[in-house]
Write a structure and sequence with these properties.
alpha/beta; Helix Hairpins; Chitinase A, domain 3; 3 helices; 7 strands; 26% strand; elongated
Length: 158
């Protein structure tokens, strides 16, 4: 399987979540199942069934995170000389040519993407259009609302 790029922050978030699931959430749900079993008949025990469902979710998420972490490539953009070009992990300040509004995006891995926080996946149409561009370049891409045009104002490696 190919390596999937992720930022240092994204790697830390995934590692912390996995650690929390294994050391806090998993033991808590095991305790909840044990307590629910003490209440007797499991067929009609809602607490037992809810705890088992939660256990399934936790175990599934642990497997998902372990799988993802085994196939990632952590990219620290602060240690890369991007030469002023838009690359994975960089922060890009853009100007919406139509509205004159400035927008700032950080190009991140798919699991880290959060549009409200200004973090876009490297697989998104805008990120694909931006990769390799430099300051003062313009891009045109197809957004959900139609064709958009942006100008690259600044590229930062932070």
């Amino acid at each position: 399987m190919n390596k999937v790029p992720v930022t240092v922050r994204g790697h830390e978030m995934m590692t912390e979540e996995l650690k929390r699931l294994k050391s806090v959430d998993r033991p808590a749900v095991i305790q909840a199942i044990a307590e629910a079993r003490e209440h007797g008949d499991l067929k009609e025990n809602a607490e037992y069934h809810a705890a088992r469902e939660q256990q399934g979710f936790i175990e599934g998420r642990i497997k998902e995170l372990e799988g993802k972490l085994s196939h990632i490539q952590v990219i620290d953009v602060t240690e890369i000389d991007g030469g002023g070009k838009v690359i994975f992990g960089c922060t890009v300040e853009l100007l919406d040519v139509e509205t004159d509004k400035e927008i700032v995006y950080k190009i991140v891995g798919e699991d880290e993407a959060d549009l409200k926080a200004g973090m876009i996946s490297y697989t998104s149409p805008i990120a694909r259009a931006l990769i390799g561009k430099v300051e003062e370049d313009s891009i045109i891409f197809n957004a959900p609302g139609g064709e958009k045009e942006y100008e690259v104002i600044e590229v930062r490696y932070e």
